[in-house]
Amino acid sequence: MRVRIEDVAKAAGVSMKTVSRVLNNEPTVREETRARVQAVAQSMNYRPDPSARSLAGRRSYLVALLYDNPSANYLMEILMGVVDACQAHHYGMVVQPLNYESPDFLRSVESLVQFSKLDGLILTPPITDSVELLDRLDQLCMPYSCVSPRNREGTIGVTLEEHDAAADMIEYLVSLGHTRIAHIKGHPSHGASEWRLAGYRSGLRRAGLRYDPTLVIDGEFSFDSGARAAEQLFDLEQPPTAIFAANDDMAAGVMSVAHSRGLSIPGDVSVCGFDNTPMSRQIFPALTTVHQPTQEMGRLATVELLKAIKDPASGQMLRMPYALQLRQSTGPVPRH
Questions:
Q1: Digit-coded pLDDT (tens) for 276-292
Q2: What pLDDT, on the 0 to 100 scale, is given for residue 232?
Q3: Which domains does the chain have, with CATH numbers?
C-alpha cells in the first residue's frame, strides 16, 4: 500500500502539518524535528502524491530548464545540478531545447508556460540575455532564475566573475613566457563571450602586451568552431605560442588540429579553456582551464527559483568562485 503523509506523521509523532513543512523545506521547524521526520519518511520510502500536493498548494510543482547551447558538456553539468535541487525539494522538471535565434522563440516559451502549467523557469545562456523574453516573463508573472546572465540587475540566479577569471588565465600564460597569445571567442549572443574577451584584453594590458586583432578568432562554443579557428591561427605567418579558448569544447578542437599537424602540446603550443568540464580531464594532455562550479551553479539557480516561487520577494543573484586548473596542456614558451 502507498505510504501516506498521515502514516509518516504518526510514526514520527508529529502533526501532518509539521511533516508538510519539513517536506517543503520551510524554516519554521526545529532541526531535531526535521531530522526525525526526514529519517522516518526515508525509512518508510514515502513519496508525496503530486496531484494532492498540487491541489493543496495551488502549484504544479514543476519547473523547466530552457537551453540553446552547443556545449553538451556544459549543459549536462547544469542539468545534473538542477536535478539535484528538484529531487531535494520534491519538484518535477522539464528540459526544453529552444532555438534562440528563431522568429518563433518567444512564442515557443509562451506556449510551454501556458500548456505545461509551470511554476518557474531556469534559463541558461544565451536565453538569459533575451531582454524581450525576460520582459514577457515579468508580464506573465512567471518566476525565473538565470545562469550567468549578461544583465545581473533585478534578476535572481548565479553568476561568475568571468572577466577576472580570463584575465588571470592570461596572466598565468605570460608568467610562462608567452607574449603571442591568441583567443578564440564564444558565440556572439552570449554575455560570457564578451566577458571572457574583455578579460583576455585586460590580461594583455596588465602584462604590457599590445592587443593584436589577428590573434582573436570568432567561435561558437563548439568543438568544430574551435578546430576552424585553430586552422586559421596555425596558418598565420607567425602563429601564437599559446591559445586561450573561451570554453573547453573549443580548446579540444584546437588540440585536435594541433595533433593532426604534428604539433606538440605544450612543447609547440600551449592550449587552455574555460569551464572545467569532465572532458577537460579526459583528453590528452589534460587541459588547463578555468574551473567554474557548473553543477553547483545549476543547483543553486534552481534553489533560488524555488525560493522566489514561495515568496516573490526572496531569491538573489549569487556570485560563485572560480579557480585556475593548471594541467599538462600549458607550459613554458617554446625556445625556438
A1: 998 999 999 999 999 99
A2: 98
A3: 5-47 (1.10.260.40), 59-160+293-319 (3.40.50.2300), 163-292 (3.40.50.2300)
**Which among 306, 100, 305, 71 has a CA at the least distance from the CA of 189?**
100
Q: Apex CA 182: angle with CA 177 and CA 186, to 5°?
A: 140
Among candidate residues 76, 73, 125, the one with its CA nearest the CA of residue 248: 73
User: Is residue 93 scored above 50 in pLDDT?
Assistant: yes
Distance CA 288, CA 272 (A): 5
Give kind and range of the element (H or E) at residue 42: helix 31-43
Name the β-bridge partners of 123.
Answer: 66, 146
Bridge partner residues of 59 (DSSP): none
Instruction: For residue range 2-25, list pLDDT tens digits in order.
Output: 778 788 888 888 887 788 778 777
**Full-model pTM:** 0.78
* Centroid of chain to Cα 96: 15
